[in-house]
Amino acid sequence: MAEPLSDNKIADELGSLPGWEHANDKISKEFSFDNFRDAVAFINRIAFEAEEQVHHPEIFNVYNTVNISLSTHDAGGKVTGKDITLAKTIESLYN
Ligand SMILES: C[C@H](O)[C@H](O)[C@H]1CNC2=NC(N)=NC(=O)C2=N1
């Protein structure tokens, strides 16, 4: 069972996650792309990694932007290590 992280621990982890913010018990980031196709391709890459990790993001797409929000449903919607891990994976997909 994933345990919720303290605000201090989250802040510490976000130190190595550029552009990620912690608010409303989620960590979130907006990613921008040259066009819609690239944005959707990014979403598709995330989908495979999320399935691999059995941990799924909230995804909001408008044209060339993709907003990702992460929290752990099984931990009452709080931020856990699973969210940090997936955020790091998502960062590695963005280039
Ligand atoms: C049964 C399955 O492992 C769980 O429902 C997984 C699926 N994906 C998930 N994703 C997220 N963000 N939080 C969860 O608690 C979660 N639980």
From TrEMBL:
<dbReference type="Pfam" id="PF01329">
    <property type="entry name" value="Pterin_4a"/>
</dbReference>
<dbReference type="InterPro" id="IPR036428">
    <property type="entry name" value="PCD_sf"/>
</dbReference>
<dbReference type="GO" id="GO:0006729">
    <property type="term" value="P:tetrahydrobiopterin biosynthetic process"/>
</dbReference>
<dbReference type="InterPro" id="IPR001533">
    <property type="entry name" value="Pterin_deHydtase"/>
</dbReference>
<comment type="similarity">
    <text>Belongs to the pterin-4-alpha-carbinolamine dehydratase family.</text>
</comment>
<protein>
    <recommendedName>
        <fullName>Putative pterin-4-alpha-carbinolamine dehydratase</fullName>
        <ecNumber>4.2.1.96</ecNumber>
    </recommendedName>
</protein>
<keyword id="KW-0456">Lyase</keyword>
<dbReference type="GO" id="GO:0008124">
    <property type="term" value="F:4-alpha-hydroxytetrahydrobiopterin dehydratase activity"/>
</dbReference>
